[in-house]
UniProtKB/TrEMBL annotation:
This is S1 RNA-binding domain-containing protein. Residues 221-278 form the Conserved virulence factor B-like winged helix domain. Belongs to the CvfB family. Residues 4-58 form the Conserved virulence factor B first S1 domain. It comes from Virgibacillus kekensis. InterPro entries: CvfB_fam (IPR014464), CvfB_S1_2nd (IPR048588), CvfB_S1_3rd (IPR048587), CvfB_S1_st (IPR039566), CvfB_WH (IPR040764), NA-bd_OB-fold (IPR012340), WH-like_DNA-bd_sf (IPR036388). It holds the Pfam family CvfB_2nd. It comes from the Bacteria. Residues 68-127 form the Conserved virulence factor B second S1 domain. Residues 141-210 form the Conserved virulence factor B third S1 domain.
Length: 279
């Protein structure tokens, strides 16, 4: 009677709290919406309760062993991980081992994770997030005419290099860290993205940044803020290292140069000796 499996079991006897199925599996009254009779066969999903006992429910989840589906996050426990709702009365743990290293990008309640079922070393049920290989089998191929089209989607992987999403249409999108203002959470729904490249394999590159003509003003404001917070001087110019610029302002060197150009044209800043000063 393995937890996480679907079985057809016969009712052995009725008890006050429900039914005892073959294999001494308990089916509580609140886990079935029909009246059962002794020797009647019933299809159930098996899982372990808080006491570690194998129990049954007639609610058959869409997330199963080796079958993936989206599950909503219903609880966050920093020392353990997050619990997701797979359609049964008990939340299933996604272990912290399968979540990002930094908790600031962990899922929040209401986010959705693409998971299957597995077990830990003690045989307890876990929800396991999909790997890139699994998602590769699921995504739809985008066509070239999708370029510059808007896109929304759900984050299924996040890292220092960027964020991977599955769109409403099933496209796999990648948001490089230079194309986002902040790192989205795993499981977060992303809106207002823009497709900036369609790859040969049908995946797309996505930007969450405004178009250049719109973002220039925001980037200029960010440069001004840094100047005001650093006594009117920052050790950056249009000749600075791109990685140093990205590490401080989270924008590309090209975007930084456009922002500086705007500010110098407006007479607000000047560059001297590889540094930028408020005028």
């Amino acid at each position: 009677m393995n937890a996480g499996t679907i079985q057809k079991l016969s009712v052995i006897r009725k008890i006050d709290t429900g039914y005892v199925l073959e294999g001494d599996v308990l089916l509580h009254h609140n886990e079935t919406d029909t009246e059962l009779e002794v020797e009647q066969e019933v299809e159930v999903f098996l899982y372990t309760d808080k006491k570690g006992q194998t129990v049954a429910t007639t609610a058959i989840p869409s997330v199963k062993m080796d079958e993936y589906d989206w599950a909503e996050v219903v609880e966050v426990v920093p020392s353990l991980g997050v619990f997701v709702d797979i359609g049964i009365s008990k939340g299933i743990l996604v272990s912290s081992d399968d979540l990002p290293l930094y908790q600031n990008v962990w899922p929040e309640i209401g986010d959705m994770l693409f998971v299957t079922l597995g077990k830990d070393r003690k045989g307890r049920l876990l929800a396991i997030p999909a790997t890139e290989g699994v998602v590769r089998r699921e995504w739809e191929h985008a066509s070239e005419d999708m370029l510059n089209k808007p896109i929304s989607g759900r984050v299924y992987h996040t890292s220092k290099e960027g964020t991977a999403i599955i769109s409403e249409e099933g496209y796999r999108g990648f948001i490089h860290r230079s194309e986002r203002m902040e790192e989205p959470r795993l499981g977060q729904w992303i809106e207002n993205g823009r497709i900036i490249d369609v790859k040969d394999d049908g995946t797309v590159n996505v930007s969450l940044r405004p178009l250049k003509q719109h973002s220039m003003g925001e980037d200029a404001e960010s440069v001004l803020l840094h100047l005001e917070q650093n006594e009117g001087m920052i050790p950056f110019s249009d000749k600075s290292d791109p990685e140093d610029i990205r590490g401080t302002f989270n924008i590309s060197k090209a975007a930084f140069k456009r922002a500086l150009g705007k500010l110098m044209k407006e007479g607000k800043v000047e560059q001297r000796d590889g540094k930028t000063y408020l005028k």
